[in-house]
Every structure is written in C-alpha cells, then in structure tokens.
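lol forgot to send this yesterday, sorry. struct tokens for the thing we talked abt
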C-alpha cells in the first residue's frame, strides 16, 4: 500500500470537503477526517489505485453514522462566515448547496467537485445508480429554483 502520509497529503482536502458537505459542521468534519485516516492506518490492504475511492466511501459511511447519532444531540451548523470566495456568485452557489439535504449534497459534491460518474458514486455511497441520478436531478432542480431568486 502507498505510504499513509502520502495518501493523507494527497486526499485530506477531498475527505474534508466531503465531510463538510455532509455534516455542515467544521468540527464534525474534522472528527470524521481523523476517524477516516485512523481507519486507513488500521487497514491491511487497499488495491493500488483505489485508495481515493476507499477514502471517499469510508468518509461517506462515517458521516452517515455520525448524522444518525447527531439527531439526538445539538450541533452548530456551518456558518457562511467560515467560507469565503472571491466572487459573490460562488458564495451564492455554496450557500444553496449547503441548504440541500445531506444525501443531495453528497452526490452533488462527488459528481461536480470530485468528478465521479454516477456509477462510481453509487458504489461509494452503496446506493443504486438510479438513486444517484434521481438525487442529482432533484438537487439540480432545487438549486435552479434557489439560485433563480438570487
């Protein structure tokens, strides 16, 4: 397996962004990242070239577990002041994406930011490909309406 520090350096931002898109919380996303890379250290073998997919899948699963348990505790949502962009348009898009349900945010992030195919997203999230395309379609419709108002 590739050196763990090299994997950390290469994929820490990807793991973190996916975790933020799921949790809406910087602190929770940092906890998820830590857990994911600890699990990586415990992992005996990952197929070469599949490290990123493994990390994204573990991140998604960890976020889902966290969200199931977070229903019973109060968490502070991610504030818009913690993320800044050079252009207002990007801030508006970010705000609209962060309003989406976690399942929609995840597929939007994986599809547009990480450039995974719908088939790959389905494998990562352990859902049917048709569910991925449905979520993308619904998310696009919601975003279109939300951004039309801006």
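and heres what i got for the seq, position by position
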């Amino acid at each position: 397996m590739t050196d763990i520090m090299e994997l950390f350096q290469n994929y820490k931002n990807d793991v973190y962004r996916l975790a933020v898109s799921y949790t809406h919380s910087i602190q929770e996303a940092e906890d998820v990242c830590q857990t994911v890379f600890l699990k990586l250290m415990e992992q005996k073998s990952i197929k070469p070239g599949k490290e990123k997919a493994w990390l994204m899948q573990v991140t998604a699963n960890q976020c889902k577990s966290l969200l199931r348990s977070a229903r019973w505790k109060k968490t502070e949502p991610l504030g818009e002041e913690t993320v800044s962009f050079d252009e207002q348009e990007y801030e508006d898009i970010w705000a609209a994406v962060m309003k989406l349900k976690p399942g929609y945010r995840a597929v939007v992030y994986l599809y547009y930011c990480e450039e995974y195919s719908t088939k790959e997203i389905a494998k990562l999230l352990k859902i049917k490909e048709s569910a991925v395309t449905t979520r993308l379609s619904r998310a696009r419709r919601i975003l279109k309406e939300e951004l039309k108002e801006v």
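The chain has seven helices and no strands. anyway ping me if u want another try
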